[in-house]
Amino acid sequence: FFQATPSNGAMEQPAPTDADAKKADKAAKKAAKEAKFAAKKAAQEAQQQKQAADGAAKPAAPKEAPPVEDPAALATAYVNPTPAGELKAMSGPMAQKYLPHEVEASWNAWWEASGYYRGNSDPADTRPKFSICLPPPNVTGSLHLGHALTVAVQDLLARWKRMSGYNVLWIPGTDHAGIATQVVVEKKLKKERGLTRHDLGREEFLKTVFEWKEAYGQRITMQLRRLGCSLDWSREVFTMDEQRAASVKAAFLRFHKEGLIYRDVRLTNWCCILRSGISDIEVEYEDLEAPKRLSVPGHPKDRTYVFGRIWSFAYKVDGSDEEIVVATTRPETMLGDVAVAVHPDDPRYKQLHGKQLVHPFVARKIKLILDPVLVDMSFGTGAVKVTPAHDPNDFACGRRHGLDEITVFTEEGKMADNCGMFAGMMRFDARVELLAELKRRGLHRGEADNKMRLGVCQRTGDIIEPMLKPQWWVDCSGMARRAVEAVRQGELKIIPAEHERTWYAWLENIRDWCVSRQLWWGHRIPAYFPTVKGEKVEVVVAGSMEEAREAVVEREGCAAEDVSLKQEEDVLDTWFSSGLFPFSCLGWPDEQAPDYAAWHPTSLLETGQDILFFWVARMVMCSLQLTDRLPFSEVYLHAMVRDKRGRKMSKSLGNVIDPLEVINGVSLASLFAKLDAGNIEPKELAAAKKMNEEEFPLGIPECGSDALRFGLLAFCGQGRDVNLDIARVVAYRNFCNKLWNATRFAFLYLDAADGQAPFRPAELPAAGGAANLPLLADAWILSRLA
Hints:
This protein is α+β, with helices and mostly antiparallel strands and 786 residues long.
């Protein structure tokens, strides 16, 4: 192991090996690298020192952000090679990746053109029937994800029944949406042309609304088709088309003939922005636990008004130094006071019985009346101001005592001409001025916090005023009893059953339904106000002007030429025509119509739980009264769709998502543009944009109709409100992609390859064949592979 030593005694060095050479080379490279790094570091430090010395160190220029791709670009640019209504060619190879806009294209149009969606009304068709009505969406723009959930559930049911061998009818339609549509068009008119409907006049305004309906109604049907809805489009209806107008008129005439519709002057929930009365269920309530300042539509935008306070003031006894103190949360209504009520047993006011009080602002004496019903003498001063024209309890009291009913507000919410120094002021401006004037006159007696419920118009956000107006009413008591019994006896099934409590609560405490609206868009009421030789006579209800004239001539015993007629200006509540929808869309009142004979009653109603009373109960009541049959035997109620934070989808919040924005994808810029084009208040617009930027910084990716429907239905199974997170829908789109790739993989083994024959399934047993398979789907799969 040792080398021999040379003669001089020095040890001989071994010859270098390859390993040594590699090691030396590695060390040299490392040293060079370290030297280079040290030089670079020294150069950087020198540069920094130089910049510091110059005092002009310049920050590095920011890198440009890469351009954000438009998620909808592919779907928007796609040109479908298949002619509309023709069968899609499937001979080519499958695409490398799943592209929803290509995969879903053409199928729905071909199925529709082939007649697969049409229900058959021929009595000779012996297949079991399944029928359902699409809850008609309002023609107020476009569908939202709540509608998408509704149609996803209904389409699932319709296709399942068709695959099960049923004769299926799914009826499409749209609703004219009286208040909602008029509000949208009026806002658009004001924003774009600076005009009101009154500036245009009734005829021109209605022409404008119909033009708007034609433009936007088509968008709704396009959305439904893009969602893949298997609706029978040959039976599409609109709640103001000719047939539905005939149905509405027939129902009104029938109700009136049976004594269920009448006209009366009663307190109405008045919206000053709409200049119309609205029903109780169109009023939303805000519970105020403490005073709150609010802006009020129709008032100056830079002003707010306090609510949740109660003010006390004094009425002086006529001819005396004595006074009675009353309290109110609505001091402006004191201009319509006609009495002050006390309890007959209250000893504090015994000496004042029969006296009168002095109104400080109008030339009117105030009666002191005794009313044990209205007054709780243990509450406050035991004295209550009475304004019959602007409060439900006061109205009832006034009718008991025969008091005058003095209206102090105009239809647009100004103080009327009978309000003295406050005439012409907006009502809440008048409140401020009136309280100040009470203080100046020494009549103000204090104020305090007061919890209260504030009624607000669902459509406009206006503070509701009880107003005395002549209106048309429907007596619902008998119809409601039948509707309650139908559920109790099991003839009508509500799913989930927990909603039966709501059904009973509404219908067992039902009040007469105010069906007239002071609008221009809607079904005009078929009633006429006649005069005979210039003298007004009782109103007449008739199908036409000619029929009304004949009725007046017969009733009054006068000549036809002596009769002048003016039709009622009011229109019917939208829910009146909607309540007839499940049988009016089948041809009622023509009970011999083929569709009516074949399909009434329908099988099922599927809708959102939020309109159980708005729509469902009214359909049941109207159908029982007009056809003596239930409109359907089952009601399935799905949950509400909310955003992922649990908030209600609302245009004012800016969180309403169009289904097409999920199906095709949408950029953040497009979401912003939609908000800008809407009727959102400026402060709400900024909040909505911020929310969209946080939720969808890169926009919404293309998901396709299948993934959207899959996602909505998966959420629906949880049995409560759907807090929809779009990211979950994207996950279902990825699931569709996995199915696509799995299919492509399977085709590698199903197609012929390397001279082998393509895959063929084994022959089915001769006895029974596919009929022996437990699932129809299995038979279908094998039939496609055969």
